[in-house]
Amino acid sequence: MGLDPIRYKPWKGQRTEHAKRFLVITDHVFRQKLRSKWLLGIIILGSILVWVFPILIFSLSPHDSLTTEMMLETLQNDVLFIFVLIAASLVCADLISEDLRGNSLVLYLYRALRPERYLLGKVLGALLVMSLFTLIPPIALGIAVTATQTGPDYLASAEVIARTVLAAVLTTIFFVPMGMMLSSLTTKRTYAAVGIFMFFFTMTIVAGIFSESDINWQLLGPGNLLNFWYDVIFGEPLPEGLSSAGMAIMTFILLVPPLIVTYWRILSKGVGK
Amino acid sequence: MRTQLHTTGLLTLTWFSAKKLIVHRRWVIALLIAILVGAVMGYFATEVEEGISAASDLLNILVLFFFMPILALIYGASMIRNEIDDRSITQVLTSPMDRRLSYLGYYFALALVLALLLMLVTTIGWACFFAVKGFDAAALELLLGYLLTVCIGALVYSALFLVFGVVLRHPIYLGLFYVFIWEDFVGSIPGAAENYTIRHHLLVMASAWIDYGEVSTMTGEPWASAMVLFGLTIALLAIGSWAFWNKEVP
Amino acid sequence: MTDPVILANTLSKWYGEVIGLNSFNLEIGKGITGIVGPNGSGKSTLFKLVTGTIRPNSGTLLVMGQRPWKNPEQLSKIGFCPDYDFLPPDLTGREYLKFSGGLHGMQGTSLETRIEEVLGVVEMKGAADRKMGGYSKGMRQRMKIAGSLVHDPELLLLDEPLTGTDPMVRREIIDLVKHLHKDHGHDVVVSSHVLHEIERMTHQVALIYKGRAVASGDISEIRRLMSDHPHDIVLEGKEMLALARLLLEKQFTVSLELSSDRRTLHVKVSQPEEFFDEVPDLIRESGSTIERMESLDDDLESVFRYLVRW
Question: For chain A, percent helix, then strand, then coil, each to nearest 5?
Answer without folding.
Answer: 75, 0, 25
